[in-house]
Specification:
This protein has 3 helices and 8 strands. By secondary structure, the protein is α/β, with parallel strands linked by helices. Strands 1, 2, 3, 6, 7 and 8 form a 6-stranded mixed β-sheet that branches. The longest helix is centred in the last third of the chain and has 17 residues.
């Protein structure tokens, strides 16, 4: 699984003009299941992200995790993280998991974040979503397990 995480002050996701998920302060997590991902990947990815020390401590250094700060997460599916841009000008997405597998692993990942004590909201898998955020830092990190 792949994720692009952004440290945020706030974020929201809307479908057809209706806000369906919010977070902040904490993380916006764009997540993509890849072909061949197994059932253990969502828990591995959630554990990795939950422990990343990317939030400021009292001295202003990135030394605290989302768990340490009591932050929340907005998890949004984004199959385009599987883009292959190595040939031509049109990205290929064949490395992304099939839709049914992708949805199952995406939902499992969001559930794993919740099990770690992180308040988690989500977008809607497969929907055309509008995501708004205030990136804090900015801090944007690529994570893959």
């Amino acid at each position: 699984m792949r994720a692009l995480i952004q440290r945020i002050s706030e974020a929201s996701v809307s479908v057809d003009g209706e806000a369906i998920g919010r977070s902040g302060p904490g993380l916006l997590i764009l997540v993509c299941a890849m072909q061949g991902d197994t059932e253990d990947k969502p828990a591995q990815l959630a554990a990795k992200i939950s422990k990343l020390r990317i939030f400021k401590d009292e001295a202003g250094k990135m030394n605290r995790s989302i768990v340490d700060i009591g932050g929340s997460a907005l998890v949004v599916s984004q199959f385009t993280l599987a883009a292959d841009t190595s040939r031509g000008n049109r990205p290929g997405f064949s490395a992304a998991a099939a839709p049914a597998d992708g949805e199952r692993l995406y939902e499992a990942f969001a559930g794993e974040m919740g099990k770690l004590g992180i308040a988690t909201e989500t977008g809607r898998f497969g929907a055309d979503m509008a995501v708004s955020l205030v990136n804090d830092g900015p801090v944007t990190i690529w994570v893959e397990v």
